[in-house]
Sequence to fold (294 residues):
Amino acid sequence: MNLLVRLNIVLVIAFSLAGWIAHAVCDSLQRSEARREVLATAGLMLDSALASRAYTADEIDPLLVGHMQDGFPPQSIPFYAATQTFASLRKLHPDFTYKEATLNPTNPRDRATDWEADIIEQFRNHQDAQQIQGDRPTPVGLSLYLARPIRAQPECLTCHGLASAAPAALIARYGKDNGFGWQPSEVIGAQIVSVPFADAAANAHRLFSGVTTLIAVVLIALLAVVNATVYWTVVHPLRRMTRHANEVSLGQATGVTFASRRGDEIGALAEAFERMRKSLEKAIKMIGGSGRGA
Fold:
């Protein structure tokens, strides 16, 4: 097995190992970046929901408070405003979901499902937790969710404290069996946004494929450059010296020279061979002269 073949085997193994490491690192980075991007989108949606709720509480509710005994307009409830806003958003992005999941809601549509109830229980068990994130399978693929706790505020207790103290219009609309008995600062639910991960993962995968292809092209080009450099600077000169050495050993040294102008190790080896050739020529001439003298 010649030197160039051995070198290529070593380089292919080294480049393959480097490519595998680069592949693993890039894959991990692209998945982390895709996850960060999706969770950032979910955070923006939650902030938008908080803005909708604040707008309703600060500007809409004061306009309707005088009509609460005549009827119960759901538009006065911050929960309702945020939920309706995202219902409109889902017409454009059906895979995005938002819910103000509650364990004991007035409106049955806000009742927490099993997995949402688990998140609420986590907030109840960890009162300092401000946010929970995770992932779950859905019919359209993996989705990431971001959740923040909903705590009963003092103004909530006007409607959700004792059923006997709740506005008559509220009782008439929703009944008196659900949505009451909340306690101050109690975690009564969670704002939960679910964002599909598939699109972000696909975009990251396309970027990852491009980077991987570029790395492969660079490694192949580097392998070609290394091969060419080693061949012309090492293998070719060594083959020439080997051929000349064979000629000298067979007595075919006419016109053969190992002289080289190179200043590296190959040049030093050529100079050593050249000195050896000259010494051998002198020795042969001396032996020949001694033979004729005898």
In short: Helices lie at 3-64, 78-92, 114-125, 157-160, 168-174, 198-249, 265-293. The chain has seven helices and four strands. The two ends are 49 Å apart (CA to CA). Strands lie at 97-102, 132-138, 141-151, 187-196.
